[in-house]
Specification:
2 copies of one chain form a homodimer. The first copy, chain A, is of the alpha/beta class. Chain A has helices at about 15-25, 75-85; strands spanning about 5-10, 30, 40, 50-55, 65-70, 85-90, 100, 110. Chain A folds into 2 domains: about 1-55, 2,3-Dihydroxybiphenyl 1,2-Dioxygenase, domain 1; about 65-118, 2,3-Dihydroxybiphenyl 1,2-Dioxygenase, domain 1. In chain A, the strands form 2 sheets. Chain A has a 4-stranded mixed β-sheet. A 4-stranded mixed β-sheet of chain A has the order 5-8-7-6, with helices on one face.
């Protein structure tokens, strides 16, 4: 393959804090060195990962790209993420099979229906 | 793992056209049925993929999340992508090791330094 998908870059006002939040949310590993831009992967050798880079401006509009995750148990995962500080977001969704949440900097992401629901 | 990263969702004014562009750009496969929201993956059983969903509004600000790809040969890949219609974008980058391009709807993405550069 000529192009390998290495990462999604996430602009952040506080990249260290946002990366720490996502590491906990996803149970991923940090592959960056301390002091470098924080980079997370599902496992050390698993691509793509998430790389958090500092920008001065906060999020201003609905993200044009967002992440979708498939849970084992949707209700349990949504409750766990809300306990970590995720917030429910209304983006006009009408399909009740997925739940839209936002991370601490407001980035929308979805928890899809549970795997066993098909 | 409690949450599996299934896809990045890309908002698009013309999801079919944008998905067709990315399929060509990445040499990925379409895993969606005709008429459904277009979904691409590196291979049929390889996650995460890209899912393109229709929105009424065009892109308005720099994407908060963007995709980074690692090429075998950066110059060759950038030339190929520009021939497909990608455009160079100035987001204030100062590191010359990567090239910032935009897809036909203006979504920024990066072609990183070639693998053999380290």
């Amino acid at each position: 393959m000529a192009l390998v998908w290495e990462q999604v870059v996430v602009d952040a006002v506080d990249p260290e804090a946002l990366a720490a939040w996502w590491r906990e949310a996803l149970d991923w590993v940090t592959v960056s060195e301390p002091g470098d831009e924080p980079e997370l992967r599902p496992a050390a050798d698993s691509l793509p990962g998430l790389l958090f880079v500092r920008v001065p401006e906060p999020k201003s509009v609905k993200d044009r790209l967002h992440l979708d995750f498939r849970p084992d148990d949707q209700a349990a995962e949504v409750a766990r993420l809300e306990a970590l500080g995720a917030t429910r977001v209304d983006v006009g969704q009408v399909d009740p099979s997925w739940v839209v949440l936002a991370d601490p900097e407001g980035n929308e992401f979805c928890v899809l229906g549970s795997r066993h629901d098909g």
